């Protein structure tokens, strides 16, 4: 009976310690979010000088997406992003950051940054996402197939692209983006921030609501 009481006491103590640790962790996380909420959404860790951006930003609204070009969810969510850019492109600045979590992600980021040099970033990103089921098939990835998709990007010089992919700047960009993602607590992709506020639900209605709350506040 005594041994049984000791075991029960040990279990209760372990549970109490776990609960206390969880509460402490959540408080630290909450405090960190509050601290970041007052950070300038146009500065580190949301935006870097190197960050790719789209839109006219007439309403001073900064949208940041952490994406992975090999991420299936990012490819699926790209239609929502395109609609947001179509509907709110004049009002917002849309910033792209990288969180390369898959085997071939870093290679494709190099392609995107090289296409950016030619002013073909958006078109290349769309081609990458559209062809993702072919080159990034999880059961049988065939990275070479991405080049078949890039051939169809109008005006993209593939020889120049291959040369620009070797620029060391690409590696620096990825490392800084990963560092900022860690600071912001970003673990998965896509993750969206609107003026520093994280989009909790990945849908167009939720995205629109968060945007308009910032535009018309």
Automatic annotation (TrEMBL):
Pfam families: Thioredoxin_4. Residues 27-166 form the Thioredoxin domain. InterPro entries: Thioredoxin-like_fold, Thioredoxin-like_sf, Thioredoxin_domain. PROSITE patterns: THIOREDOXIN_2. It comes from the Bacteria. Keywords: Disulfide bond, Oxidoreductase, Redox-active center, Signal. One of its GO terms (molecular function) is oxidoreductase activity. Belongs to the thioredoxin family. DsbA subfamily. This is Disulfide bond formation protein DsbA.
């Amino acid at each position: 009976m005594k041994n049984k009481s000791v075991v029960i006491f040990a279990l209760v103590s372990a549970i109490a310690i776990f609960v206390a640790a969880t509460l402490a962790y959540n408080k630290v996380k909450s405090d960190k979010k509050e601290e970041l909420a007052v950070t300038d959404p146009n500065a580190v860790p949301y935006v870097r000088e190197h960050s790719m951006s789209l839109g006219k930003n007439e309403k001073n609204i900064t949208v940041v997406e952490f994406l992975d070009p090999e991420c299936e969810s990012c490819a699926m969510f790209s239609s929502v992003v395109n609609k947001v850019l179509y509907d709110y492109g004049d009002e917002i600045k849309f910033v792209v950051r990288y969180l390369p979590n898959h085997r071939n992600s870093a290679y494709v980021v190099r392609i995107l940054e090289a296409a950016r040099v030619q002013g073909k970033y958006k078109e290349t990103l769309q081609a990458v996402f559209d062809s993702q089921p072919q080159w990034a098939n999880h059961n049988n990835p065939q990275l070479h197939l991405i080049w078949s998709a890039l051939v169809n990007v109008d005006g993209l010089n593939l020889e120049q692209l291959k040369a620009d992919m070797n620029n060391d700047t690409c590696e620096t960009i990825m490392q800084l983006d990963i560092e900022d993602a860690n600071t912001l607590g970003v673990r998965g992709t896509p993750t969206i921030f609107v003026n520093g506020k994280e989009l909790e639900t990945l849908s167009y209605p939720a995205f629109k609501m968060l945007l308009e709350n910032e535009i018309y506040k």
